[in-house]
Structure formats: C-alpha cells, structure tokens
Amino acid sequence: MSWLGSPGDAASRRSGTLTVLDVGSSKVCCMVAKLKPCDDGKLLRGRSHRIQVIGIGHQKSQGVKSGVVVDLDRAEHAIRLSVDAAERMAGLTVDSLIVNMTAGRLKSEAFSATINLGGHEADEADIKRVLGAGAKQALKAEREVIHSLPVGFSLDAERGVRDPRGMVGDALGVDMHVLTGDAAPMRNLELSINRSHLSVERMVATPYASGLAALVDDELEMGAACIDMGGGTTTISVFSEGKFVHGDAIAIGGNHVTLDMAKGLSTSLDAAERLKVMHGSALPGSADDRDLVSIQPIGDDGDVPLQIPRSVMTRIVRARIDETLELLRDRLNKSGYGNAVGKRVVLTGGASQLAGLPEAARRILGRNVRIGRPLGVAGLPEAAKGPAFSAAVGLLIYPQMASFESHPAKGISGLKMTGTGGKLHRMSQWLRDSF
Fold first, then answer.
1. Pairing relation of β-strands 96-101 and 199-205?
2. Name one GO biological process term (predicted).
C-alpha cells in the first residue's frame, strides 16, 4: 500500500491534514499538521510534502510507565486533554491518529525473500508479493509486526536496487528489516486511545520516528545511530543508506535518574527533578566539592534545608547515566550494525538535555555525539523545538517515507489495523488518494 505516490507525481501530492500522538512516560503530546506538496525544485530526498504544524497540545503523562499503559483511565484522561488542546488550536476535530510505540520488547530481525519474475518488468504487484513473502516469516505467536521495511531489492544477481519498478529480470529479491513487538502493550495503548473516541490509523516504532526527525540527510545516507532518551525508556535506531535497518528499546530513562537522586538524597521526587534540571550534570566539575546545593528532606517540616556538596549529586547522576550508555553501547555492538553507524551518534529526547551528557556519551560510546532537535517542520512553537519533541515530529514525517512499507498485519492479527473497513479504512483510503 503506497500512501504517497512517487515524488514527481504531482497529482498524487495533494494537501491534507495529519494528526499524530506521542504517548510517553513523562508527557503526552498531540500535533495536528497541514501537509502541502513541495515545489518540485525543493524536494528533499524522500520528502514530498512541507509540514506546517497548526495545532499542538501536551500534557503531563499519567498511567504510563516505561512506555507501557498501566492505568487505562488515567492514560485516557491525559490523551483526551492533549488531543482537545491540539484540536482547539487547529480549529478542527480529529478522529484518527498516527501513534508511536515504545514498549513491547521491540525486536529487529532481517529476512530475505525472492519471487520469480520470469523475465517481465517488475510492477507494484510484484513488489507487494515479495514484501509479503518476507513479512510472513516474522509472524510469531503473541508478537505483532510493527514495521516490515525493504532495506534493498535485488534483481537476479544485482544487489542494491533502490526501486525495482519497471526493471526487467528473472528473480526479484528483497532484504527486509522487520520490527516486531509484544501484542498486549500495543492493544492496551490502542484501547486507551479508542476510549477517547479516537482510532489508531497506524502505529510507528518510536526509534524510527525519532531518527526521521533528528537525523539530517547525510547521516541517514552514510549511516548513523539515533538514541532517543525519554522519561521512562531509551530507544536506539540505526539508519544506513537512507533506510531504517535496526531498532531497539530499553526501559531506562530520565525518570530513573530522578528516582536515584530522590533515594540517594532522601528528598521528594519533585524536588529531585528540580535539582536534576537546575544543577544535575553527568560530568564532574572542578568546583563540585565547594558548590553547595540545598535540599529539603522528605517529611521534614523544618524550614532549614540541608546543604550538600554538588559532587554528591553528580556521582548519583553519573552512575545511572554511565550504566545506561554502557547498555546502549553493548546493544549497538550486538546488533551487528556498529560498523554501519561508524562514528555518528545523535542524542535526542527530553532526557538528552542533561548537562554533560554528550561528553559522557562520547567517552563511553567512543563516537562523535551531537544533540539532535526535530528538523524540517514549520509552525512549531518555541517550547516544542527541543529534543523532547523529536518523536512527535518524526510521526509527522513518517507517512512520506512509508511508500514501500508492507503491512502484513491486516486480517492476521487481532489488532484492528487499517483495512478492516469502517473509519480506519476510509482514513487509509484517504491517505492513499490524497498524497
């Protein structure tokens, strides 16, 4: 199913609106955007539309822990409030959205499949057939396919074909990257959205979305990793030759640093969060032993706060940050894509704003590190231009990149994905017709 025609096909690029929802452990953010076709001269590679955000709403997250919905009522409440705010600002009503998915033990696997062309030209139907053959291998009990993406096509013995449409050969092969997740967390996330009288148009893996927003074209092409550090989870994605080739997630995020500080300094979570934002650093400074930070101990109504050296706090932060980065380094090396990444790592997500984090990441990952902010979207308010909004912006970019993606989930899974008729079906039909 191709939502967007080929970039040159002007008729297939009409304007439309798109709504996305980022349900995180620390915030829920909804964005409504208008998509306008780019002038042909200004086509970014792979991007056929300009994105203008016309509505945004965000809310402190409730009922979500480490990316998993743990309380339906509270999650629904937060989703409802953020969607309402975005709708009011955009002046329209939303009925279905693209949502990101972090939890569910995301797992990337590579598959390849080949079909016989018999010497004729490859067309859409052949591509669909070979993608379907590749994706079928990934369906396992209690797992859902979130993405099944072609990494590269091959014709006969020639590999590295980007778009085989119209080319001639005997055998059409595809190397695929299939990303699966546990079914239950996906269903519960969908349930909390359905209870707000909204339907899920498509689920997109958070690491994919963050990478689309934070990496620049050259990084996508040459190969880079994007690490999205959120409140309750940290995800990692690897892109190579413009394709998303690997995704992973661990259930550790910025909230764990706050929790460690609250325990270590025996202060409240709110006070620990404030200390982390104001004074927290992953880098020990020379004046840390002399600098004193005042802390209000838990349950102590006395007006006299405790004074502790800043170095005590830095040690707590640093221990957790180092552990997280070492885990990410091991995951990256184990993925087999360490070489594809080369020296390029981009950090994004709300928790990436911690002072001294890029230096700590350089030391532990042994690579060049920069902080990535969401790129290529107009109309974002100043407050939403930071790394915390990368995943939401990536969801807006996603439909333009999804032209080759195959969706084997239809009819096989219990999830009511697109293609089951009803409102969802109309929406996907609209996406297909409009773009």
1. parallel
2. FtsZ-dependent cytokinesis
pLDDT-derived band at 415 (thresholds 50, 70, 90) equals very low
pTM of the model: 0.87
Asked whether 64 and 41 are in contact (CB, 8 A), the reply is: no
What are the structural domains of the chain? 105-181 (3.30.1490.110), 253-310 (3.90.640.10)
pLDDT at 165: 87
Stretch 383-412: mean pLDDT: 77
pLDDT value, residue 84: 96
**Tens-place pLDDT, residues 323-338:** 999 999 999 999 999 9
Q: Which of 264, 319, 329, 377 is nearest to 20 (CA)?
A: 377
pLDDT for 53-71, tens place per residue?
A: 999 999 999 999 989 999 9
Q: Strands 292-295 and 224-229, how do they pair? A: unpaired
Q: For the packed helices 269-279 and 254-264, what is the interaxial angle rounded to 10 degrees? A: 110
Per the DSSP assignment, residues forming a β-bridge with 18 are: 33
Q: What is d(CA 178, CA 245) in angstroms, rounded to the nearest whole number?
A: 9
In this prediction, residue 404 carries a pLDDT of 67
Q: What is the 3-state secondary structure (H, E, C) of the chain?
A: CCCCCCCCCHHHCCCEEEEEEEECCCEEEEEEEEEEECCHHHCECCECEEEEEEEEEEEECCCEECCEECCHHHHHHHHHHHHHHHHHHHCCCCCEEEEEECCCCCEEEEEEEEEECCCCECCHHHHHHHHHHHHHCCCCCCEEEEEEEEEEEEECCEEEECCCCCCECCEEEEEEEEEEEEHHHHHHHHHHHHCCCCEEEEEEEHHHHHHHHHCCHHHHHHCEEEEEECCCCEEEEEEECCEEEEEEEECCCHHHHHHHHHHHCCECHHHHHHHHHHHCECCCCCCCCCCEEEECECCCCCCCCEEEEHHHHHHHHHHHHHHHHHHHHHHHHHHCCHHHHCCEEEEECHHHHCECHHHHHHHHHCCEEEECCCCCCECCCHHHCCHHHHHHHHHHHHHHHHHHCCCCCCCCCCCCCCCCCHHHHHHHHHHHHHC
pLDDT class of 15 with cuts at 50, 70, 90 = low
CB atoms within 10 A of CB 115: 18
Question: Is residue 312 predicted with pLDDT exceeding 70?
Answer: yes
**Nearest alpha carbon to residue 130 among 328, 408, 380:** 408
Average pLDDT, the chain: 85
pLDDT of residue 299: 77
